[in-house]
Amino acid sequence: MTPFVLACVTGAAILHASWNAVLRGGGDRVWSMTLMMIAVAIVTAITAIFIAWPAAASWPYVIASATIHVGYNLSLVRTYRSGELGETYPISRGSSPVFVALGALLVAHEVLDVVASIGLALVSLGILSLAFQGKAVRSDVLPAALATGVLTGAYTVVDGIGVRLSGNSLAYSNSLFLLWSITMPFLYWAVRGTPPAYTKPQTLMALTGGLASILAYGIVIWAMQYGAMGVVSALRETSVVWAAVIGRIFLKETLTARRMASCLAIAAGAACLAY
């Protein structure tokens, strides 16, 4: 992986942690997620006028990924109802690189070398260790967070294959985001009906979070053309380091010495992956 691609994925990690913090700190998280998807739908609908559609071979992957992403949205909202950002985010993000690496091995026959495998292990174990309280993870946190990790791994593998068949990563990403985002508002109004009263700052924050989300994952989709899916995924999930800092500063969550040590393990793993 080149230094430029590495830097881009690192930037995506920061953006990912930021929009997840926006969602975690929102009053009504389902409505916050819906507002994010409205912002995504508006931007991608406009962009679709000016760019080509992806190659036909990639469309089954676009549809599959968009479907998985809807489930991911709902699972993510449920995850943040069960615990703090610094507690739940590491489980869902730390487990996903392992699922991605396994999926890429089984589906795309991608095999990691020894250094990359050590890096993947360090990143995943460091991330998961962030979620522990004492010697155990709260049982009410684990199911939803792991489900989110599985769904993250699933859509990442699907997109890693789809973008390579698309002929254009921007066209693939835009089509995916458009199809994915237009479903959430209809789903909200079908289930919840009238949205809650949000202030202008709350609404603007959620809309901005939506824009950050498409930029963050768009970079990841682009990067998977140039590196193994498991490597790109693990580098993206170093976002837990930023999530821990954001959770401490903006959400007043605890940042212990143990969490800092876990962050150092993640950084070491990322260095191995970038080797």
Quickly list its features:
275 residues, mainly alpha, 77% helix, globular
Q: Can you put this structure into words, describing what you see?
A:
By secondary structure, the chain is mainly alpha-helical. The chain contains twelve helices and no strands. The chain has one domain.
In a nutshell, what does this entry contain?
This protein has 275 residues and is mainly α. It contains 12 helices and no strands.
Strand and helix map with partners:
Layout: H1 3-25, H2 29-47, H3 59-82, H4 85-107, H5 114-129, H6 142-166, H7 169-181, H8 183-191, H9 200-223, H10 229-236, H11 239-250, H12 257-273
Number of domains: 1
| C-alpha geometry | globular
Look at the helices and sheets and give the structural class.
Answer: mainly alpha
Q: Overall mean pLDDT score?
A: 81
Fraction of residues in H or I helices: over 70%
Biggest sheet features: none
The fraction of residues assigned to DSSP E strands is under 5%
Query: What order do the helices and strands follow?
Result: HHHHHHHHHHHH
The total of beta strands comes to: 0
- Unreliable spans are none
